[in-house]
Amino acid sequence: MVNLSQPGLVVFDMDSTLITIECIDELAALVDRKAEVAAITAAAMRGDLDFAGSLRQRVAVLAGLERDKLAQLFQPIPLTPGAAELISWFRQNGWRTAVVSGGFSWFTEQLASAIGLDQHCANTLLWDADKLTGKVAEPVVDAQRKASQLKVWAEHYQIPLTQTIAVGDGANDQAMLEAAAVGVAFCAKPALQAVADIVINEPNLMALAHHLQNNEKQ
Fold first, then answer.
1. pLDDT tens for the chain, residues 1 to 218
2. Where's the active site on this chain (predicted)?
3. Which of 2, 53, 143, 210 falls between 20 and 30 A from 166, CA-CA?
4. What is the third-level CATH fold of 9-217?
């Protein structure tokens, strides 16, 4: 278990973790394709589909969507209960905080700014003027990229991997949880809960702070 009194790094997934929505599903709703895209997302999060291939398939549906439509999803940002408080708590304990997402940098950048994250990484949507092309920049941020990004940030901040925590909800987060010293499954799919060190099924992220504090006292 990590030592809260020492500097550390905590890395979060974004969709259905730091925020309550799956951005790509809500974007698809803007073009009346939500049910179709949400079914693909759910299968990918269960681990039934290749993530990178399914992401390209879902992004293709968004071709022609105008930039100002994206902003609708983040006015206000649909933060998970306890998200901002948990980030503040980690920072008060001297920890670095970050988000790495199989979603999109358009959203992670705003999220990082809003709640004070040190780093963010996600897929880049490609544009033709102010409309989506239906393509995403390569390489796709997939499960392995999430795990490697955690290691890159830990090295950047000179934080040992023994002082890292990863928090996610889907199969795409498994490698990241396994790379960290402590893997946290937050309101997660069964496949992720099976490999996590900590399972939190209460839909409030501050439950993680309470769990870590209680563990320190034992």
1. 899 999 999 999 999 999 999 999 999 999 999 999 999 888 888 888 888 989 999 999 999 999 989 888 999 999 999 999 999 999 999 999 999 999 999 999 999 999 999 999 999 999 999 999 999 999 999 999 999 999 999 999 999 999 999 999 999 999 999 999 999 999 999 999 999 999 999 999 999 999 999 987 76
2. 13, 15
3. 53
4. Rossmann fold (3.40.50)
Other beta carbons less than 10 A from residue 16's beta carbon: 22
Pairing verdict, β 182-186 and 198-200: parallel
Q: Which amino acid, residue 14?
A: M
The span from the CA of 111 to the CA of 162, in Å, is: 27
Could you write out the DSSP letters of every residue in 54-88? HHHHHHHTTTT-BHHHHHGGGTT--BPTTHHHHHH
CB 91 within 8 A of CB 166: no
User: What are the extents of the domains in the chain?
Assistant: 9-217
Mode of pairing for the β-strands spanning 131-136 and 125-128: antiparallel
Residues annotated as catalytic (active site), given as ranges: 13, 15
